[in-house]
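Forwarding the complex inputs:
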Amino acid sequence: MPDIRPHLLRGVRPLGGEPVDILLADGLVAAIGADLRAPEGTTVVDAGGLIALPGLVDLHTHLREPGREDAETVESGSRSAAMGGYTAVHAMANTDPVADTAGVVEQVWRLGREAGYCDVRPVGAVTVGLAGRRLSEIGAMADSAARVRVFSDDGICVSDALLMRRALEYVKAFDGVIAQHAQEPRLTEGAQMNEGCVSDRLGLPGWPAVAEEAIIARDCLLAQHVGSRLHVCHVSTRGSVDIIRWAKARGCEVTAEVTPHHLLLTDDLVESYDPVYKVNPPLRTADDVQALREGLADGTIDVVATDHAPHPKEAKETEWSTAAMGMVGLETALAVVQKAMVDTGLLTWEQVAERMSATPARIGRVTGHGRPLAVGEPANVVLYDPAAPVGVDGAAMVTKSSNTPFGGMTLPGRVRATFLRGAPTVLEGKIQ
Amino acid sequence: MRHLLSAGDLSRDEAVLVLDTAAELALVGDRSVKKLPTLRGRTVVNLFYEDSTRTRTSFELAAKRLSADVVNFSAKGSSVSKGESLKDTALTLQAMGADGVVIRHSASGAAHRLAGWVDGSVLNAGDGTHEHPTQALLDAYTMRSRLGRLEGLRVAVVGDILHSRVARSNVLLLTTLGAHVTLVAPPTLLPVSVHTWPCEVSYDLDAVLPKTDVVMMLRVQAERMHDSFFPSVREYSRGYGMHGERLARMPEDAIVMHPGPMVRGMEISAEVADSPRCTVTEQVANGVSLRMAVLYLLLGGS
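Prediction (whole assembly, two chains):
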């Protein structure tokens, strides 16, 4: 049972501003002010020094259920999300069976409700079985109890230009969006890592930047032609940022996300041949990282999305080429963004809230999330300590898997509490 | 030196020590009793995930001439084909007390991964399209014994550089040893960042040959044609194959090398392959001495 008592957040700094008290009651932000009195039965949280942000919203999460419950379940993944300060996540469609019918998306949605740690918004597959041949029943998923608005074949690119056009057109009927995994398949056959100096030296087949950029350019033009919304998943190259900036300037309704790992890590880490650094799209160069940070700062890239991709140990304890692609990211996202963007002076906390809560909620058409911290708004709040350095340890994480690329690194802060409609899912840094 | 994973790990002094040690050990091969007691009681495992009778036999012979116990563990007919992971295989070999593991694997980096899982020495006998350090060492050894030096030697490596572990190891080692390397291939068979490598690059074999002391021909798999790396075997052969006329345009004492197995009629004509200036069989013979030297230096210490 969720703890529905009122909570008084004493001395908290909303969006990193001046300290105030915030009272959460009846699922809402009940009061904001100095020295608020705590009604009877209120739990008082000493939030001195902590930053309050609206609960984070992830547009890109792999919860693995149904099918790969050995890596993650809806419950374990949504607990991990809560630990990271998230109150809503979008569960990607590449499960087994694929989330390409109303039945599967409703199952995932229901599992999320039962778990109760955050709102789980299923993403529907664009094509049946992610096979890229024909559209899945997008309308049925949109009309289902799960109210799907984001559609993606993530993991696989909708590479057929005509099919992509149709998908973009079709979702206009219910204000949906196609989230594209931009990867030209022929240019990336057998690809193992970013194509460049490091791949050439290591003898690993390269994943060239152009394979991402060419698809993004095509899709922006298509989206503008048919007047639909396009969302670009996990942008990873400087060229992609340039193309999206150009597309936005000419009026294309495109949004884009970047992952925390692409904001911090570079492809030279692959020198170790440790598949914990294997991810798709791959880690790129320092120059790409710089461009991604600039793009996120100037709004070319709209949001940070985790691409949380849990894998069992045996999928990573192997030689590079047979290892699975992907990294867990929910529990480290905010701290990585602080390190890459806030501590470098590129973003304020207010802008972090925009890029990790308000804008992703708007793109996913998620109601009740990404709202301002104001009286009468849903009490979806995260309390973050930006001055609590923590050594990352995959084994100590709440997610069922441990494949973090940040293991052994020290990140600058940690989530202290997360509230979902007023009920704490995390308190004193511990899952409730 | 605990492992030999990359030719780039060797300093100039270490590389010269390997070559000098190989020269001494080569004398054993000339005796009627071709055996030294140096590695008696030590166990060397040949862990071969790729078929390579040539390399495996070379390592086996090298270890046996040093009196090591040799176990051949091939991917076929072992637990490997039943789906056992490289890590579990590594732990098994570890439990059996392997002092050295010689690994050949189709995945780049497999030797690096193995080195993190076992206590013994790991010797990279070819990992994917990454490296093949003992091949580069035996090539350098062969050049030095034929031409008397490595410093300042002009070496052209010709063929499928992109997919060649031999080319990668040779560029690293020959540069360390002071030779000048030129890579020659059609642009499709060169890595995109090759201009950052410590060597020259040319698309024109005929322009390179007259100023070349050693030309090293790499095997080109005909299958590459189907991926459009080149239009046809004939066109490849015309541009980049070694034949008698081209050999005649090289300096008089220049040699032709090939790591084997050769595809006659593709990258090398029978006339060149059988000429006394071609060192293919010499390379094979030198391979045993060179691998003895590496095993001795890795495992011979107390």
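The longest strand of chain A covers residues 7-14.
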